[in-house]
Write a structure and sequence with these properties.
alpha/beta
């Protein structure tokens, strides 16, 4: 059985010495102090995660956790679970949206079956399946607590596997028809917000279907009555294998000291869940962008996130997370570039304040 209390106790703080050296290295670069803003902070954070100021993200990947949600039976989406399987196969074939966006940045993309109702025939889809789709949350729990924790464990293990393969940076994503509904329900409970405040139109619902989706979120919370102080209870009753696996990957990033980037709404729910399961994970979380889903800002505020990218994106598949990687590449080019000593120019002085 997954022992989250022990894992939380074993996760140490970010390496402050590595972060201090990284800050000093930034201050030696021939540019105004802290002039790359959040990008400098992110490089320092990665140094703290890995324990080395010699930051390298040369080998990187995107993992798209794929899972189906029984709540699609309530007609809260435009399509069914067959879309999840189709897109997982397209990712494996290299032709989905995430692949197109990964290619110029040199990012490998992996589709991972955490809970797809219909398994993919493509062997390149990584099989980490916990169950063949979750239950309908408007009728009862999505899954058992044991199944939720199994999915969390598989997320933790996946980070370890990728690190063993040499990956230095992992961008997360998800694919699962119905998962904005599960994420909205979880957010409503975690943050004490109304269904209206946390529910968006997802992939283009009509106004009538949107009002129905809000009602489904409300009824799911009423039927399951999850304990907001028990993140496993909330996850099992209202979540999905994708969200559980994402939470595990963020915990795994802290356990294995690998930087893991958080994508949009569903991934941010996974990050919030991870921080509730293991509070020591919080400093390891790396936000990428601010989605337009209505609940995202509240989640970002609760996590203390201040993402670099505000692009109004809501495509999914981890596409927002991979957009951060080229920005990190450019920042690292400067981080490892020309210093004041190289130029013979007097260095800017650090403000003691």
């Amino acid at each position: 059985m997954l022992d989250l209390e022990t894992i939380n106790a074993q996760i140490g703080p970010l390496d402050q010495e590595a972060m201090t050296v990284a800050t000093d290295k930034w201050n030696a670069v021939a540019k105004p102090i802290a002039s790359l803003g959040k990008l400098e902070t992110l490089v320092e954070q990665i140094a703290g995660i890995t324990g080395s100021p010699d930051v390298s993200i040369a080998k990187r990947c995107s993992t798209i956790l794929c899972s189906d949600n029984g709540v699609v039976a309530e007609h809260v989406t435009q399509g069914g679970s067959e879309i999840t399987t189709a897109i997982a196969g397209n990712i494996a074939r290299g032709i989905s949206s995430i692949n197109v966006m990964c290619k110029p940045a040199g990012i490998d993309a992996f589709a991972v079956d955490l809970g797809m109702e219909h398994p993919s025939a493509d062997p390149r889809v990584l099989d980490r399946n916990v169950m063949r789709g979750t239950g309908d949350i408007m009728l009862g729990p999505a899954m058992s607590c044991d199944q939720a924790l199994e999915a969390v464990q598989k997320g933790i293990d996946l980070v370890g596997e990728l690190k063993a393969q040499g990956y230095e940076l992992i961008a997360t994503g998800e694919m699962g028809i119905g998962n904005t509904t599960t994420s909205s329900a979880m957010t409503s409970v975690f943050l004490g917000m109304t269904p209206e405040e946390v529910t968006g139109k997802g992939a283009g619902l009509s106004e009538r279907d949107y009002r129905h989706k809000i009602d489904v979120v409300r009824r799911a919370v009423e039927v399951n009555h999850p304990d907001p102080k028990d993140p496993v209870d909330v996850l099992a009753k209202l979540g999905g294998c994708d969200i559980a696996g994402l939470a595990g990957m963020y915990i795994g990033g802290a356990v294995h000291r690998v930087p893991v980037i958080v994508d949009g709404f569903i991934c941010t729910v996974g990050a919030y869940t991870a921080a509730q399961l293991c509070p020591a994970v919080r400093p390891y979380l790396i936000p990428s962008h601010l989605s337009i889903e209505p609940a995202v800002q509240a989640l970002e505020d609760a996590l203390g996130f201040d993402p670099v990218i505000h692009g109004g994106m809501h495509l999914g598949e981890g596409t927002g997370a991979v957009c951060l990687v080229p920005l990190l590449d450019m920042a690292l080019g400067l981080y490892n570039g020309t210093t004041y000593e190289d130029t013979g120019i007097d260095a800017y002085e650090v403000d003691p304040q």
